[in-house]
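Entry 0007
Protein: ABC-type uncharacterized transport system, substrate-binding protein
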Amino acid sequence: MRWLVTLVTCCLPIPAMTHPHVFIDTGLEFVVDASGQLTHVRVTWAYDEFYSLLVLEDMKLDQDGDGILSKSEQDHLSGFDAQWDQGYNGDLVVWSESEVLPLSGPLEPKALMEDGRIVTSHLRSVEGGPVPATALSAKAFDETYYTAYDLTRPVTVSGSKTCQIDRVEPDVDGQLAQMQAFLLTLDANYDLEENDIPMVGENFATEIRISCPNT
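Output (structure tokens):
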């Protein structure tokens, strides 16, 4: 997926190229209780090497550059990406029977270093109480596509051994063709701040479908 972001970025008008891009390998754990209801979703983000380096330098961590954090440094890093603005959905949407589930903000944030990359995790509870996990779907995406989320880390269900997980990959070629056609209609003076541009992030996101039989 990273080649796609690079290609799209190169095609965008100059104003859009000033925004940094972040690549995040993502994992999801759907926590289901004994009655087959979804209670929480645990999210894992593994940041790309360059962004990880920027964060460490900004926070003055890993000063010796060995990629190993002390306990105090790890504690200081934990939660750096869990300070969310009001209304931010955590770049994760979960549906139950086509209805968007309200999820809490990040709980139990943790962070560590893994092969030169910052890896964080946080837990999100289903607000209003558990919901049946008979027909769930989820996508991790930034609608602006300035951050690219790839579901390359494990996607699992805990609490039940009977749930089925299916992946629906996006039509990358088709979506890219549509985006390129749109970009060709723009000129170098196109003002992105004054004009609406398509929010394409969801179109390039892998969909996860969870089905847990009633117990």
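Curator remark: Residues 2-211 form one domain. Residues 12 and 101 are 33 Å apart (CA to CA).
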